[in-house]
Amino acid sequence: MLTTVVGSYPKPDYLRIPDWFTDANLAKGYKYTPADYNEFQRAADKEDLEKQITRAIREVIQEQIDIGIDVITDGELRRENYIYHFCRQLEGFSFEELEKVTYRNGATTGYFPTVVSEVRPRKDQPIVVEEWRASQGLTQHPVKITIPGPMTIIGTTKNRFYKDRRELSEALVSVINREVRALAAAGCKYIQIDEPVMMREPDIAEDYGIEHVSRCFEGLPPEVTKVVHACCGYPLYLDQEDYLKADRSLYGRLAGKLDSAGFDRLSIEDAHCPTDLSFLSKFSRTTVVLGVVAIARSRVETVEEIRGRVREALRFLPPHRLVLAPDCGLGFLSRDVLRDKLTNMVAAARTFPEA
Ligand code: MET
After folding, report:
1. Where are the domains of the chain?
2. pLDDT tens by residue, 77-123
3. Contact yes or no for 145/73 (Cβ under 8 A)
4. Which residues are in coiled coils (predicted)?
5. 229 lines ligand 1 (CB under 6 A)
């Protein structure tokens, strides 16, 4: 059975890019905002930073290969987070005019970048293609790239320009689709759109959100694997148990629409809070990437425990349509813990023969 990761890795100590995981880990006192990153960007020695990024990416790529992960990423190591890194490179988003926002029923406050003019690529340049090419240049192993989806971008920014969120979503679809086509033309074989906000806004997901994600992938050749990631949300720090996850029963509600949207793989979480997996039988064509290790809990899942969840999933899905992964990005975990978790995940996967 195949394995993959969802994207992010913790940054090593020598790579001092501020991100919301560092915040989460060091935190309690220091609050990450995009403004901190603005400062960092202004002060950074770009050449030095690029060398550190390359070193760090080389290390995480090698680590995933050594562990035996089939579809690897570059750990998103050059990114402050999986959303803003993309938006910063677009015209239309302001990272200087931030707006204070309270969300998740008042549980979280953040400073959101604002949309202040038409959203389009700056200087007509692709955004993540160079980033992917640099990472892919370090290995023969295919590297998956991740891009935030329209609902997720809208969920962590403030629209001050477009008439409504649907119009902004349309603009984002066309930017993302250009990007996705450019990645395919450059030879990228695994493209993942991160769209966890679908799980927080199921009505919009059903109305047009899922359709917009499928339009982001329009025009791709069949050899490119289209992945959508939809977890139930990051906490603020490791081992936080009381955070407000999206409702997992929504997987069942959205399954039919997601299954007919044309995605090759749908990445969902299960490890943090295992529930009834019978909704998996609603997927008749999509491969499910099942989260079998929790990313915000330091306890390492055993091989037997993971095998148990896989056996349960196999009651509802054939083995060739099941891939194992962590619930989400790995940025909260220490390198030792995440290595142990991924090693157990791969060991469990190898006990299930491919169909
Ligand atoms: N690719 C992103 C990551 O690995 C997905 C985040 S979804 C909350 O962090």
Report:
1. 2-85+121-155+162-350
2. 999 999 999 999 999 999 999 999 887 777 777 889 999 999 999 87
3. yes
4. none
5. yes
CA 300 to ligand 1 centroid distance, Å: 20
The CATH number of 2-85+121-155+162-350 is which of 3.20.20.70, 2.40.440.10, 3.20.20.210, 2.40.10.340? 3.20.20.210
Q: Is the CB of 77 under 6 A from ligand 1?
A: no
**Can you tell me the distance from the alpha carbon of 130 to that of 152, in angstroms, rounded to the nearest whole number?**
23
CA of 245 to the centre of ligand 1 (A): 14
315 CA → ligand 1 middle, Å: 28
Tokens of 346: 């791969």
DSSP annotation of 307? H
Q: Which two tokens stand for residue 178?
A: 């250009």
Q: State whether the beta carbon of 81 lies less than 6 angstroms from ligand 1.
A: no
HEC profile for 107-167? CEEEEEEEEEEEEEEHHHCCCCHHHHHHHHCCCCCCECEEEECHHHHHHCCEECCCCCHHH
